[in-house]
Amino acid sequence: MRRIFIPLVAGILVAAVACTEAGAQPTVTPSPSTTSTSTATAVVSASPTAPGVVVTATATGVATAPPKAIDPTRTPVATATSGPQPIPTPTPRVTQPVSAAPALDASRRREQAPIHELDVCIAESSPPQVFVDVTTGLPSGCAQFDSAVLERSGSTITLTMWNSQPSGNVACTAIYGYMRHTVPLGAMSPGMYSLRVNSETRTFTVQ
Question: What is the pTM of this model?
Fold first, then answer.
């Protein structure tokens, strides 16, 4: 018996054994694929026409990992950025000041409104008219704007912006709101003035 060693490509052997008693070599036709990842040994029995001939073949292929499939629907995750958010600009409303805060219902209490923006505007008129543009905050879903109380003492102007809240232990939504007011201060004589709105202070000059 004779053993013939033939390299097997891709782990698959197609062998046609055409041996004769005269000792003709077998014909081997390899397959075209080259993606095997293992070593294999194949033993092919001799054909009836060539008894006693055994063909032994060993093949080792080159391992190649298939590429990962890319999901076309995947969206890159953006990195969130932290920092102060811009204050929204609500539609201004004209808020007429009063000299004293109105009576309040017993179920509510009054507190000063947070001040976020404050500007003094002087109209080109004769005599000059002065307006205050102020953005106040509403700290919760239960907060409501109440009133604007104006006081004057010489060149000092005090404008108090009030909110009202429930006086009892009431559950409120944590929604922060804003209101923008235009408060007319009326006609003013030329000179320098000091304006205080809650915790904010501004100085302006009327020509």
Answer: 0.58
